[in-house]
Design goal:
By secondary structure, the protein is of the alpha/beta class. About 25% of the residues lie in helices and about 20% in strands.
Amino acid sequence: MHQTNDRREFLKLLSVGGVVFASGLVGCNAGTLAAPSSPAAPTGNHPLLPEGDFVFLQLSDTHWGYQGTANPESALTLKHTVATINAAPASPDFIVFTGDLTHSTDDPGHRRTRMSEFREIVSALKVKNLKFLPGEHDAGPDQGAMYREMFGDPNFAFAHKGVHFIALDNVSLLGASLGDAQLAWLSNQVRAVPPAAPLVVFAHRPLFDLYPDWDWTTKDGGRAIEILATHENVTVFYGHIHQEHHHLTGKIAHHSARSLIFPLPAPGSTPNRAPLDWNPRSPDHGIGYRSVSLQQGAAQLTEFAAQKAE
């Protein structure tokens, strides 16, 4: 079966519509998914993925607590997304939130309330394997102290079905940097990954200089890229810029995700980075989340458009 048809069948199993296919991206596998032998709904595993491969979801920039004209449905968007994922008959292996879980506030009490509310909402996900990274809205006001209390370490590593994952914290330190200690930790983690194993990296900010004038960079991200470049098969997923963006640094593919709250303009396309106006006639308002299927170590991306909240 043709790859596009296979992927559409897979999305039917997920029961999610309004998607943008990202096939043909540099760094993504061009292979096909195997068709199911029967149309019966899956019971836990994905019938269209070869054995040993898997799917995870990336959600980013939920900004729980935001109130403004850029998204008049902000109180419903995250809850609607949770309900949509729960209604899908096929479940991802895990879900990763790549930062800005909550919207920034200078009031520590309000910040704690927002983090607690966010944690309660996502606890309703049927997928219980959840991974969290901070964004500057979560960690900036106190250099990540409350985030650590509520969600644990902001940088960590794990392996899943032969794929190695590293989560980086490039928001807690002043100046939006990783810092010498974390870079040393990263170097040790990369050296521990078997040479033939795929390596996936999560971060909130882009590691490369996407658009420094809008703070779309990491101060010492170039050092992280140099460390990651010592491994053959690396893919980076990040958030922060509230839109799809795909970039290569050498062999490393970097992919940003849409926000679940509001889109931002393309880099440098406007005088400032203010949220784009809410369009009541838009079917998805430029917001959504991403499914990543890892097949034989290569990423295939599917962007899910957030449906209108009911």
